[in-house]
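Structure in, sequence out. Go:
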């Protein structure tokens, strides 16, 4: 495990602490979860770009449909 120090504006840090508290997790766990989501989105975008570059439009559109469905369920 790696330790990472970050600088945040006071207001951002305060809001992150409040969000973590409302979810019943530590700020560390919250940042870990948010980072995992951001990396998953980035991986998906890169995968989509690779599919688009190879001309597999139907497969790329199917991925977008699946992501849209997941977003709708998460809301």
């Amino acid at each position: 495990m790696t330790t990472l120090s970050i600088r945040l504006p006071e207001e951002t840090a305060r809001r992150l602490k409040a969000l973590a508290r409302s979810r019943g997790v530590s700020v560390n766990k919250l940042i870990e979860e948010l980072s995992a989501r951001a990396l998953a989105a980035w991986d998906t975008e890169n995968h989509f770009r690779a599919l688009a570059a190879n001309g597999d439009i139907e497969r790329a559109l199917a991925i977008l449909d699946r992501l849209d469905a997941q977003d709708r369920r998460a809301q």
